[in-house]
Write a structure and sequence with these properties.
By secondary structure, the chain is mainly β. It has one domain: Nucleic acid-binding proteins (OB fold (Dihydrolipoamide Acetyltransferase, E2P)), CATH 2.40.50.140. Helix content is 15%, strand content 40%. It starts with a strand and ends in a 24-residue tail after the last helix.
């Protein structure tokens, strides 16, 4: 089975182009994905993973995803090789997106437009529900 699930922040706006042979839309971008563990005394590290989205999903990503936004991507890992003009072989590993989702809260999405990637990367701590989240101990407020 080949399945990849990632959540991270876009390092740049998606780049969109069309294939020469079939004129199919393809969008590519990179996600900065935090590593799960941090060594004591060191800063959190991230992996930068290339994502490719085709056709309608690529159109969605190019239209709505912006640099610094936190997104979720589900897809498959793919490797490919090619030879350049000098005959040098190049290897690429990338995720072919099959699903893509917004992962920021609405408040975070609104604020991303006015801030840089460096200021927003890592600003959302896992498990942080924000000031708007309130636990109710009363069953009177439940809608069912």
């Amino acid at each position: 089975m080949n399945k990849v699930i990632l959540m991270g922040r876009l390092t740049r706006d998606p780049e969109t182009r069309y294939t020469q042979t079939s004129n199919t839309l393809v969008s590519s971008f990179s996600l900065a994905v935090n590593r799960r563990f941090v060594r004591q005394g060191e800063e959190r590290q991230a992996d930068f993973i290339n994502i490719v989205a085709w056709s309608k999903l690529g159109e969605f990503c190019s239209k709505y995803f912006k640099k610094g936004q936190q997104v979720g991507v589900i897809g498959r890992l793919q490797t490919r090789t090619w030879d350049d003009d000098q005959g040098i072989k190049h290897y690429v590993t990338e995720v072919i997106a099959e699903e893509a989702y917004f992962a920021d809260s609405k408040r975070d999405q609104d604020s991303v437009a006015g801030t840089s990637f460096e200021n927003t990367f890592g600003s959302t701590a896992p498990g942080n529900m924000g000031a708007d989240f309130e636990v109710s101990s009363s069953s009177d407020d439940l809608p069912f």
